[in-house]
Amino acid sequence: MLEELSFDTPAGRLTVAAREGAIVRLRWGGEGSARAELLERAAAQLREYFSGARREFDLPMRVEAGAFQRAVCARMAAIPFGETVTYGEIARELGAPAQAVGQACGGNPLPVLIPCHRVLGASGLGGYSGGGGIETKVWLLRHEGAGGLLI
Hints:
This protein is an alpha+beta fold and 151 residues long. Helices cover 36% and strands 17% of the residues. It is built from 5 helices and 5 strands; from the N terminus they run βββααβααβα. Strands 1-2-3 form a 3-stranded antiparallel sheet, with helices on one face. Strands 4-5 form a two-stranded parallel ribbon. The longest helix is centred in the first third of the chain and has 15 residues. The protein is globular and about 40 Å long. The model has no long low-confidence stretch (mean pLDDT 95).
């Protein structure tokens, strides 16, 4: 059973969802009110991230998707706070087209927790599927002090 908890952040209202002991989704908006320990822990860690007190998340997460999506998410999860990579760099590492990597980034079920905002185009910011679109991506990058030449 999917449980959800919603809370406000500087980047907008977020809803975090868990199933079978793992965080499986984060989205903008929502009205979840479950009070499960894991959801409370996720909300607390996200609040710490947004306040500047946390750079990494220590949560059980599961990407419920196909093998390629999981591979792209695993690579994005390895991008350190405040650093960026390009869609092309991930594409070369995975032996896939950059467009496929971009689509997988856009399908990231755990934005912020898996930092797809840290993936940029070769000559610009690229897109962002999270709430607020590219403005949210810019906010997150500024929050982390990343991508200084682009923003």
